[in-house]
Amino acid sequence: MQWLSYSTPLLQGAWVTIQLAAMSTVLGAVVSFALGLGKVTRVRVLRLPCIAVIELFRGTSLLVQLFWLYFALPVFGHAIGLDLRLPPVTAGVLALGLNIGSYGAEVVRGAVQAVPRSQHEAAKALDFTPWQILWRIALPQAIPEMMPSFSNLAVQNLKDTALVSLISLGDLAFRAEQVRNYTQDSTTVYTLLLLMYFGMALVLMAIMRVLERAVGRWRAVLRS
Amino acid sequence: MNDIHSETHDDADAIIRFEKVVKRFGATTVLNELDFEVHKGEKVSIIGPSGSGKSTVLRILMTLERIDSGLIHVAGKPLWHQYRHDQLVPAGEAHLREMRKEMGMVFQQFNLFPHMTVRRNITEAPIHVLGLSRKQARERAHKYLELVGLADQADKFPGQLSGGQQQRVAIARALAMHPNIMLFDEPTSALDPELVGEVLNVIQRLSEEHDLTMLLVTHEMQFAKQISDRVCFFDQGHIVEQAPPEELLTDPREERTREFLKGFLETNAS
Amino acid sequence: MLFGISWDTSSNAAFAASILPILLRGLLATVQASIVGFVIALALGLALAALKSSRLRVVSWPARLLAEFIRDTPLLVQLFFLYYVLPDYGIVLPAFLTGALALGVQYSAYTAEVYRAGLESVPRGQIEAAHALDLLPARVFRVIVLPQAVPRIVPALGNYLVSIMKDVPVLSVVSVLEMLNVAKIIGDRTFNYLIPLSMVGGLYLVLTIVASAGVRYLDTRLPKRGLPLR
Predict the structure, then answer these.
(1) b/e for C159-182, b at 16 or more Cβ within 10 A?
(2) How far is the CA of A212 from the CAs of A151, A207, B186, C111, C115, in angstroms?
(3) Is the residue at C113 inside a domain?
(4) Residue C136 lies in a domain
(5) How far is CA C142 from CA A210, C150, C203, C218, C222, in A?
(6) Is A223 at the interface with chain B, CB within 8 A?
(7) Cβ B107–A218 below 8 Å, yes or no?
(8) Would you say residue B4 has pLDDT above 50?
(9) Residue C7 lies in a domain
(10) Is the pLDDT of residue B245 over 80?
(11) How many Cβ pairs closer than 8 A exist between chain A and B?
(12) Do B129 and A128 count as a contact with CB atoms less than 8 A apart?
């Protein structure tokens, strides 16, 4: 029953992974809406940077982004006289959140643009401001459509957290490497590791399904 | 009935005035230096073939489309322009928002908000645009739902209602903003024939019981005959002929009008 | 010095220019790993899709579970698994192949889904009409289903190729000398991470833009109604 003795460090690592996933998912959600809505705004000053960020983070590798934030940013900061050294947690959450947020931005944009133009016109005829139209008419109809894609992105983000082990952050993958190095029992350790990630993914998918249902009720719940 | 051909007609009564309005969509000129007037309390029906610009007139009034040139006055104030230091400049969003309050629009596809109950569809704008309290808005919603005969459906969602019911809710929603001008853009064209009557009845009651100025784009000629003070026949971006319904819908003067109304005139020879 | 090329640290511009050929070697390795991984993903995905759609539940259910398992576990862990566990069972592969294999396994779950969705997108009515005409199932597949499924499948697969390219840097943990690894080594030795890593970012943008454009081109060249058969 050797695998029982692995459980403590692995569970500690799993807890770190869960926290990382939670933080980066929240950041990712915020970034998704900020960038996604920013991409459809008519204000060019806002729209172009949003497009640039989205293309940058979707067009390059997550690991490259992570390494850049952790290794390159401090050098940049040094050159301009600022201390931009990020602790592994910050670099990790930032890279994960911006990355998944850029993919999410396309989901947000697509769903918001899919709301029929006639809804916008009816709202405009009733003299709502553009902001009111977005908040009260467009988003409530768009968000239920985003949920299935958001679910996939959330699981993808969970998988991506394993990469932070490469900047020495003590997540599940990192702890597993430590245990393996110590015990050389690769098969057991990695099998356990895969199963633990799978388990977390299943839990996450269940949570997303609950959210999906809650938001789906939103489609028909705004009473007065 | 008002004699709109009278020279002595008081211009101050013109609640809507189009002067040489041009509207282009790409290479197509939909409205070609249109001159058009509607007087306060008048019920005007606009008929014509597709692409003649009739819906565009309503959409321009509802500020859903910009004009390319010309001038429009609503209730004495310019619509797509505003005065800045006594000079006429293109209207900004704030001015348009003010002007929009004069008009209410009912769309062909109803366009109710699917994620809100009937009641909320009607109260949302009065609360968040006009600043009414929730209580006041609910009272208003109830009043207009009664007017359109749907007071008992207040808690339903649009998806649970028939097309005719949805359109009646849409009418109540527009009325709840207390506009001075009601615009109906082919309100019954998307309805199954058996549901058309209930909507037309509501519009008829509205025209009889209220002082509203009404513009109705429609294909329902018989109905137009019943409720209108004046019927305008649009073709290719301008008014070919306009006259009280007894004249235009029975014995039109222009050849083009006769051609368009051929079927109707034959079945309604009186 | 790396790959026999030394770098010039006299100025930033000189540094950047001198490491570019080194990074390009890494880029080459990246592209190679992507393609090999992609081919493996195509093959494994096909097998997986076939198993998933089997009529025998004793075959299809484990296959579906396996696909879900592969989809929901990190590439990094799968890579470690293959790299450390396979030798314990007598299979010793060069790091590059292990990496490509890991990519292939991870993406086989996605390609299997692409195959399934593409095949299912062919309208039922077509297949029924073909059967009514008494065509043999093999012919129906080859002549009716496949030509109509391919225009759907190929662009989707192309997009996954682009995704694979973005996942290649993970292979650096098993010392595959792809672009990011090369940049990191240069950074480790010169303490200037900024220039190499930024250049890698730029090269990646170019790579993905070119690859995506290629996929889009392919998409426009494939008629939506299906490959024409005269």
Answers:
(1) bbbbbbbbbbbbbbbbebbbbbbb
(2) 9, 9, 38, 26, 27
(3) yes
(4) yes
(5) 42, 11, 40, 21, 17
(6) yes
(7) no
(8) no
(9) no
(10) yes
(11) 79
(12) yes
Asked if residue A223 is part of any domain, the answer here is no
Q: List CB contacts (< 8 A) between A222 and chain B.
A: 115-117, 120
Give the structural domain span for C217: 12-221
Residue C4 covered by a domain: no
Task: Please give the structure tokens belonging to residue A63.
Answer: 């690991």
The verdict on a CB contact (< 8 Å) between B124 and A224 is yes
Find the residue in A nearest to B99 (Cα).
A127
pTM as predicted: 0.83
- Based on the structure, what is the number of domains in chain A? 1
Total domain count, chain C: 1
pLDDT, tens digit, for every residue of A54-75? Answer: 999 999 999 999 999 999 999 8
CA B226 from chain centre, in angstroms, equals 16
A120 in contact with B, Cβ within 8 Å: no
Give CA–CA dist A223/C169, Å, rounded: 51
- For residues A190 and C85, the answer to whether their CB atoms sit within 8 Å is yes
Residue A160 and residue A162: Cα distance in Å, rounded?
Answer: 5
C-beta of residue B106 within 8 angstroms of C-beta of residue B185: yes
Write out the two tokens for B40. Answer: 């306060």
Main-chain dihedrals φ then ψ at residue B132, nearest 5 degrees? -70, 155
Q: Please tell me whether residue B103 adopts helix, strand or coil conformation.
A: strand
Across the interface, whether the CB atoms of C209 and A165 are under 8 A apart is answered no
The CATH number assigned to the domain holding C108 equals 1.10.3720.10
- ipTM of the complex in this document: 0.88
